[in-house]
Amino acid sequence: MIKKSVNSLSIVGFLILMLMLLLSGVALYLKHYGLSIENLYLYYAGDEANYINPKNFPSIMKTFSPHILVLPLSFFILFHIALASKSIKKEQIKYVAMFGFGSAVFDVLINFFIGLSFAIAVIKIFIFILFELSMIYVLVMIFRKIFSENTLS
Fold first, then answer.
1. CB-CB contact of 103 with 134 (8 Å)
2. Are 127 and 106 in contact (CB under 8 A)?
3. Reduced to 3 states, what is the DSSP secondary structure of residue 153?
4. pLDDT bracket for residue 2 (50, 70, 90)
5. pTM higher than 0.85 for the full model?
6. Distance (Å, rounded) from C-alpha 12 to C-alpha 133?
7. Left if phi > 0, otherwise alpha if psi is -120 to 50, otherwise beta: which for 51?
8. H helical segments located in the chain
9. DSSP characters over 138-152
10. Which end of the chain is less packed: N or C, by CB atoms within 10 Å?
11. What is the distance between the alpha carbons of residues 148 and 46, in angstroms, rounded to a whole number?
Protein backbone atom coordinates (compact mmCIF):
# COMPACT_ATOMS: atom_id res chain seq x y z
CA MET A 1 0.00 0.00 0.00
CA ILE A 2 2.80 2.43 0.88
CA LYS A 3 4.61 1.64 -2.37
CA LYS A 4 1.50 2.46 -4.42
CA SER A 5 0.99 5.74 -2.59
CA VAL A 6 4.64 6.74 -3.09
CA ASN A 7 4.40 5.85 -6.78
CA SER A 8 1.18 7.83 -7.13
CA LEU A 9 2.71 10.77 -5.29
CA SER A 10 5.81 10.81 -7.49
CA ILE A 11 3.68 10.53 -10.62
CA VAL A 12 1.39 13.33 -9.45
CA GLY A 13 4.50 15.44 -8.81
CA PHE A 14 5.75 14.77 -12.33
CA LEU A 15 2.32 15.56 -13.79
CA ILE A 16 2.22 18.85 -11.90
CA LEU A 17 5.64 19.74 -13.31
CA MET A 18 4.38 18.84 -16.80
CA LEU A 19 1.36 21.07 -16.27
CA MET A 20 3.68 23.88 -15.15
CA LEU A 21 5.79 23.28 -18.29
CA LEU A 22 2.72 23.62 -20.48
CA LEU A 23 1.51 26.73 -18.67
CA SER A 24 4.95 28.33 -18.89
CA GLY A 25 4.95 27.56 -22.63
CA VAL A 26 1.66 29.40 -22.98
CA ALA A 27 2.93 32.29 -20.84
CA LEU A 28 6.11 32.62 -22.91
CA TYR A 29 4.11 32.40 -26.11
CA LEU A 30 1.83 35.22 -24.97
CA LYS A 31 4.82 37.27 -23.77
CA HIS A 32 6.65 37.02 -27.10
CA TYR A 33 3.75 37.13 -29.53
CA GLY A 34 0.61 38.19 -27.67
CA LEU A 35 -2.72 37.15 -29.12
CA SER A 36 -2.10 38.68 -32.54
CA ILE A 37 -1.05 36.66 -35.56
CA GLU A 38 0.57 39.82 -36.91
CA ASN A 39 2.78 40.07 -33.79
CA LEU A 40 3.88 36.47 -34.29
CA TYR A 41 4.75 37.15 -37.92
CA LEU A 42 6.60 40.38 -37.11
CA TYR A 43 8.53 38.67 -34.30
CA TYR A 44 10.13 36.39 -36.90
CA ALA A 45 10.07 38.59 -40.01
CA GLY A 46 11.24 41.69 -38.17
CA ASP A 47 9.69 45.13 -37.81
CA GLU A 48 11.74 48.29 -38.31
CA ALA A 49 9.10 50.48 -36.68
CA ASN A 50 9.41 48.56 -33.40
CA TYR A 51 13.16 47.90 -33.72
CA ILE A 52 12.69 44.14 -34.06
CA ASN A 53 15.39 42.40 -36.06
CA PRO A 54 14.32 39.51 -38.27
CA LYS A 55 15.08 36.14 -36.74
CA ASN A 56 17.89 34.28 -38.44
CA PHE A 57 19.09 30.71 -38.17
CA PRO A 58 21.30 31.19 -35.05
CA SER A 59 18.59 33.09 -33.16
CA ILE A 60 15.98 30.43 -33.94
CA MET A 61 18.42 27.69 -32.91
CA LYS A 62 18.61 29.25 -29.43
CA THR A 63 14.97 28.24 -28.98
CA PHE A 64 15.15 25.07 -31.03
CA SER A 65 18.08 23.50 -29.16
CA PRO A 66 16.49 23.04 -25.72
CA HIS A 67 13.28 21.78 -27.30
CA ILE A 68 15.17 18.92 -28.97
CA LEU A 69 15.73 17.28 -25.57
CA VAL A 70 12.81 18.47 -23.47
CA LEU A 71 9.89 17.64 -25.75
CA PRO A 72 10.77 14.04 -26.67
CA LEU A 73 11.76 13.20 -23.09
CA SER A 74 8.57 14.72 -21.71
CA PHE A 75 6.47 12.86 -24.27
CA PHE A 76 8.24 9.59 -23.57
CA ILE A 77 7.62 9.77 -19.83
CA LEU A 78 4.10 11.16 -20.05
CA PHE A 79 2.85 8.58 -22.54
CA HIS A 80 4.49 5.74 -20.63
CA ILE A 81 2.67 6.87 -17.51
CA ALA A 82 -0.56 6.96 -19.51
CA LEU A 83 0.05 3.41 -20.76
CA ALA A 84 0.95 2.13 -17.29
CA SER A 85 -2.05 3.76 -15.67
CA LYS A 86 -4.39 2.42 -18.33
CA SER A 87 -6.11 5.80 -18.21
CA ILE A 88 -6.37 5.86 -21.99
CA LYS A 89 -6.99 2.84 -24.19
CA LYS A 90 -3.85 1.51 -25.86
CA GLU A 91 -5.19 2.17 -29.37
CA GLN A 92 -6.25 5.69 -28.40
CA ILE A 93 -2.91 6.52 -26.77
CA LYS A 94 -1.15 5.55 -29.99
CA TYR A 95 -3.09 8.16 -31.95
CA VAL A 96 -2.82 10.84 -29.27
CA ALA A 97 0.93 10.21 -28.99
CA MET A 98 1.45 10.43 -32.77
CA PHE A 99 -0.70 13.55 -32.92
CA GLY A 100 1.04 15.21 -29.95
CA PHE A 101 4.53 14.33 -31.09
CA GLY A 102 3.78 15.34 -34.69
CA SER A 103 2.36 18.69 -33.62
CA ALA A 104 5.39 19.29 -31.37
CA VAL A 105 7.81 18.57 -34.23
CA PHE A 106 5.90 20.86 -36.59
CA ASP A 107 5.59 23.55 -33.91
CA VAL A 108 9.36 23.67 -33.44
CA LEU A 109 10.33 23.30 -37.12
CA ILE A 110 7.83 25.83 -38.47
CA ASN A 111 9.71 28.60 -36.63
CA PHE A 112 12.34 28.48 -39.38
CA PHE A 113 9.72 29.45 -41.99
CA ILE A 114 7.39 31.95 -40.29
CA GLY A 115 9.30 34.97 -41.61
CA LEU A 116 8.56 33.85 -45.17
CA SER A 117 4.79 34.20 -45.07
CA PHE A 118 1.98 35.49 -42.89
CA ALA A 119 0.02 32.29 -43.66
CA ILE A 120 2.72 30.22 -41.96
CA ALA A 121 2.19 32.28 -38.80
CA VAL A 122 -1.48 31.25 -38.85
CA ILE A 123 -0.45 27.60 -39.17
CA LYS A 124 2.02 28.05 -36.28
CA ILE A 125 -0.72 29.25 -33.93
CA PHE A 126 -3.01 26.41 -34.96
CA ILE A 127 -0.28 23.79 -34.43
CA PHE A 128 0.70 25.27 -31.05
CA ILE A 129 -2.90 25.08 -29.84
CA LEU A 130 -3.22 21.48 -31.05
CA PHE A 131 0.01 20.54 -29.27
CA GLU A 132 -1.10 22.09 -25.99
CA LEU A 133 -4.53 20.45 -26.21
CA SER A 134 -3.08 17.00 -26.85
CA MET A 135 -0.79 17.28 -23.84
CA ILE A 136 -3.56 18.62 -21.62
CA TYR A 137 -5.82 15.76 -22.73
CA VAL A 138 -3.27 13.16 -21.64
CA LEU A 139 -2.61 14.95 -18.34
CA VAL A 140 -6.33 15.17 -17.55
CA MET A 141 -6.87 11.50 -18.34
CA ILE A 142 -3.99 10.45 -16.07
CA PHE A 143 -5.07 12.76 -13.23
CA ARG A 144 -8.61 11.44 -13.55
CA LYS A 145 -7.39 7.86 -13.29
CA ILE A 146 -5.15 8.56 -10.28
CA PHE A 147 -7.77 10.47 -8.32
CA SER A 148 -10.71 8.23 -9.20
CA GLU A 149 -9.04 4.96 -8.20
CA ASN A 150 -6.02 6.26 -6.25
CA THR A 151 -3.96 3.58 -7.97
CA LEU A 152 -1.96 3.05 -11.13
CA SER A 153 -2.87 -0.54 -11.80
1. yes
2. yes
3. coil
4. very low
5. no
6. 19
7. left
8. 2-33, 37-45, 57-85, 90-109, 118-149
9. HHHHHHHHHHHHS--
10. N
11. 49
